[in-house]
Amino acid sequence: MSIHDLKRGATTTGLVAILFAVAIVAFGVLALLLNISERKAESSLTHFRVVDIDDETTDPAVWGQNFPLHYEGYASTVDMERTAYGGSEALPREPTEDDPRTVVSRSKLELIPQLKRLWAGYAFAVDYRQARGHAYALEDQTFTGRQRVVQQPGTCMQCHASSYVAMMKLGEGDLYKGFDMINQKPYQEALKHVEFPVTCIDCHEPETMALRITRPSFMEGVKAWKASQGEPDYDLANATRQEMRSFVCGQCHVEYYFSGPNKNLVFPWAKGLKAEEQLEYFEESGFVDWTHAETGTPMLKVQHPEFELWSQSVHAASGVSCADCHMPYQRVGAKKISNHHVRSPLLDVNAACQTCHNRPEEALIEWVETTQGKHEELTKAALDAVLDLIDDIVAAKEAGATDAQLERARSFHRKASWYVDFVDAENSTGFHAPQEGARLLGEAINHARLGQSALREDVR
Ligand code: HEC
Ligand code: HEC
Ligand code: HEC
Ligand code: HEC
Ligand code: HEC
């Protein structure tokens, strides 16, 4: 059974039945494993191999024969359950020729109406939804409305598909070469080389099950970032296990851009991870994602900087990793395993938070939701400020202002939009780093107002 089968049978009852069957098989195998393990006190899980897996085994179901509980958790990422601000929701839809999906997540363009104008003229203003589980990563990318307005490059695949084996095959063992080859293909071409969404082989070394990094964009990004922090000889091989528990996620949950005609996937970290450091990087190169349809401003778009905002948090400073909250340990019989049902920690506060925070579940949820509520209010204020600046630039344009007169205001527009986007494109609604988020929203409001005063000075 593959994750594809799970997805195809995506009626809820079918799914429950399948998961139930998987669970029964899983428990059977586990009982056997536990039985053996009693006699092998020192042994690790990797010793109980039912099948051989190697560096070409992409199918998670095959890995699942050796690690049924991990597979079960992974397969559960098809579940859709919402929380107050996050999670994901299965909204029914009529399948069309373009898009066979029968359920999709909530539209963020409907939830936050200002976003359509923030991104006017860009594909994101057409379709942008709440993220859902890893099981959907490939299909949601294939069928997003953004595919229908722009010819997307194969680069998109790097964070949505299990692309490791495809890269190794295309590059004949040279990961970087295979990476380049996939990036340069048109999306539909690249799609032919992959089969699954992100899976076991993308995070694990098959022989030892150790965590590993499989994406050249992160290998290069982390080097550039460490060099900017005064560590020019940084070697990823020396990363600690605790660091790896965040680095594997940092391969995808980060801001990125496509560099040059080959559409190389690059993380803009050469000046550091903070929002203003990434902005400075783009300001230096003059990079432009799109031109704003209303104001004519050369714009930047931010995507999911979870790793970057988390890195500014109290949790990161205290050594708490992504996996600590999103893949907490669960006890199964005598074993402790990492829960591979990656999802909102608020759906499992007991395992995700209470191991460290001795507070009742309701209190913890309220703690998070209070932060998120305040964050949402401030985000709306910042978005409104940026839209005010857009209104003013449009009015000045209509009144005949020249490009020279609009230059400073547009530059503030570009920056204000960058700051608000760095926060609204992040998926924790302010939880990962509340103070940093508030600071960035302050920067957005400030830049929007500076743009309005620049207009008053420059357009007379
Ligand atoms: C201290 C615990 C904690 C840590 C550490 C943490 N997160 Fe989160 N994360 C949360 C909480 C709480 C939410 C909000 C969930 C919600 O609103 O339902 C969240 C939300 C998310 C979401 C959106 C989930 C959804 O259901 O909408 C993503 C994606 C995410 N985190 C990724 C990461 C990544 C990647 C890292 C590491 C770079 C990380 N998180 C570190 C607790 C944590
Ligand atoms: C650096 C990694 C990375 C690259 C490259 C990438 N994505 Fe994603 N994508 C993610 C992550 C992480 C999420 C989940 C967080 C979120 O939704 O913001 C996501 C979510 C999505 C979603 C679901 C939410 C939404 O936006 O509607 C779609 C669709 C999507 N990406 C399409 C694309 C397309 C098209 C491309 C190529 C232009 C692309 N992605 C390139 C990492 C990436
Ligand atoms: C290869 C890229 C990749 C890696 C590695 C990756 N993610 Fe994701 N993640 C995605 C994409 C893409 C989505 C959005 C899928 C969709 O919406 O269809 C996503 C979605 C999520 C969600 C939202 C789930 C939900 O139910 O709403 C969470 C939480 C999350 N990832 C956390 C993590 C954590 C924690 C790690 C590291 C242990 C991690 N991810 C590693 C690409 C990745
Ligand atoms: C997005 C990255 C990611 C994916 C995909 C992933 N894992 Fe893991 N896995 C982790 C992390 C993080 C840990 C914790 C490792 C640590 O603490 O050293 C882990 C730990 C494990 C362990 C060690 C025991 C434990 O529970 O901590 C096994 C076995 C394992 N995973 C199997 C699998 C299998 C099988 C799949 C595919 C069905 C899979 N993993 C997919 C990130 C991932
Ligand atoms: C591995 C341990 C660990 C886990 C797991 C963990 N935390 Fe924390 N948390 C800490 C530490 C350490 C601090 C720093 C403050 C302190 O020393 O008490 C902290 C601080 C906080 C703060 C205050 C700082 C801030 O950013 O506002 C909140 C709120 C919080 N945690 C909520 C949560 C929630 C909710 C979860 C589960 C989703 C969670 N934590 C999971 C260890 C953890």
Description:
With 460 residues, the chain is mainly alpha-helical. The protein has two domains: 259 residues, Flavocytochrome C3, Chain A, domain 2; 98 residues, Butyryl-CoA Dehydrogenase, subunit A, domain 3, CATH 1.20.140. It contains 22 helices and eight strands. The strands form four sheets. Strands 1-2 form a two-stranded antiparallel sheet. A two-stranded antiparallel sheet has the order 3-4. It has a two-stranded antiparallel ribbon with strand order 5-6. Helix 2 packs antiparallel against helix 4, helix 3 packs antiparallel against helix 4 and helix 20 packs antiparallel against helix 21. The longest helix has 38 residues. The radius of gyration is 23 Å and the shape is globular. The chain starts with a helix and ends with a helix. One heme C (HEC) binds next to helix 17, helix 18 and helix 20.
